[in-house]
Design goal:
homodimer, Alpha-Beta Plaits, PsdUridine_synth_TruA_C (chains A, B), alpha+beta, isomerase (chains A, B), 2 domains, PsdUridine_synth_TruA (chains A, B), EC 5.4.99.12 (chains A, B)
Chain lengths: ~240, ~240
């Protein structure tokens, strides 16, 4: 069996997220598996690097699959390009070791969240940025973000409930930059809970509005209560940028 | 009467072009006039800087209109932002002299055409670039473009037929740049005939493929026959960038 690793970009705007679901055809995994299965004449099962929420985008999502299909990776790329919808693109396919697993082997992931902080919307980026006209204070956001760096229990930063699984994660860095009113928040960590990046962003937005101080963010972490943290930021501003192995 | 000048950006993807038409509601002019008329309680008529084809975008389209409405331009901006569709944005409104006319007073216009010249489509730019996998030779395109600079009869570069109007126009410059496989062709001229920029781009693409030499482009100009020039490049890659007065 060959083990093939794919780098995928997708505009998640109209999709219900990465993971295949029974009640909808609109998932990234479902779309790609369907084309791969037709191509290989096998029931291909993709292993993704993780779930992405409904409406979230990806620049470099990683997945792998096993196949007996003998086609060259170039031929596969051409086939996928031909049959996948326009909003899903395969950037590369490469042969990897049998033991490679797109989810288990993840060392860290990088997400970016884009906020159009100008007064008016940008007609060309309206599907790829969250528009917020109230000016955010970048320095306040940066100070607040520093509290989250390191290993913490992020229970306040997920909408996951009643789970026995650990909610401890490590955030390696958060960079916040601004150019021409476009704010880009980059978050890198060893793993993320359900909705975690969007709740972090929602919390940093509150900090940027002056509603939360770094000590408040510390308190939110310690309280371990979802309702203490900021609101869930809109999906359309979020991109999975890179996965590190 | 006040004379107000607007700077407009629009994603033209789903529209039938700038100009109002009887048989469709999907024009930029139609959409904006409807909101302006509601706002001013007058039958507002917009004077646009020119037509743009179905599917063509604009970063800074200029239009003006006369009104007795006493609202401040800031209030007007907020109103338009509230009621216009997401893919049409008003960037500014300013008071101008009574004699200002958005079409008659145009000195020159700048268009850009974007070509994704990478092997695969870009999922995030698919509606704003023309995707062409065959590698284009930038130098050949630049050489060919130089033939078009200056004042010429551009009859071969329009789909307009049987017109008594002059087809003589002046191209001031054509810049062609490339970054990460994205080709950007910038064309500035004193005026453009129907489809002229897209036929120029279609012709430069032929040059970039090695199918036309600068002497061929000279011949195309001289022949004054539409079928001698290159094909019409797709609308979605074209943006009206600026209008100079």
């Amino acid at each position: 069996m060959r083990n093939l690793k794919m780098k995928i970009s997708y505009d998640g705007f109209k999709y219900k997220g990465w993971q295949k679901q029974k009640d909808t055809d609109l998932t990234i995994q479902g779309k790609i598996e369907a084309v791969l299965s037709k191509m290989t004449e096998e029931a291909v099962q993709l292993v993704g690097c993780g779930r992405t929420d409904s409406g979230v985008h990806a620049e470099n999502y990683i997945a792998n699959f096993h196949t007996k299909c003998a086609l060259s990776t170039d031929t596969m790329l051409d086939y996928l390009y031909e049959y996948l919808p326009e909003d899903i693109g395969i950037k590369s396919i490469e042969e990897v070791a049998e033991r490679f697993h797109a989810r288990y082997n993840v060392k860290s992931k990088t997400y970016v969240y884009k906020i159009n902080n100008n007064k008016f919307r940008d007609v060309f980026n309206r599907k790829y940025t969250y528009h917020l006209a109230d000016k955010l204070n970048l320095m306040k956001m940066r100070y607040a973000s520093q509290v989250l760096i390191g290993t913490h229990d992020f229970q306040s930063f997920t909408n996951l409930r009643n789970s026995d699984k650990s909610t401890i994660r490590t955030i390696n860095y958060i960079n916040i930059d601004e150019k021409d009113g476009l704010l880009v928040i980059e978050v890198n960590g060893n793993g993320f809970l359900w909705n975690m990046v969007r709740i972090i962003v929602g919390t940093l937005i509150e900090a940027g509005k002056g509603n939360l101080k770094p000590t408040d963010v510390e308190k939110i972490l310690n309280e371990k209560k979802r309702w203490e943290a900021g609101p869930l930021a809109q999906a359309k501003g979020l991109f999975l940028r890179d996965v590190e192995y």
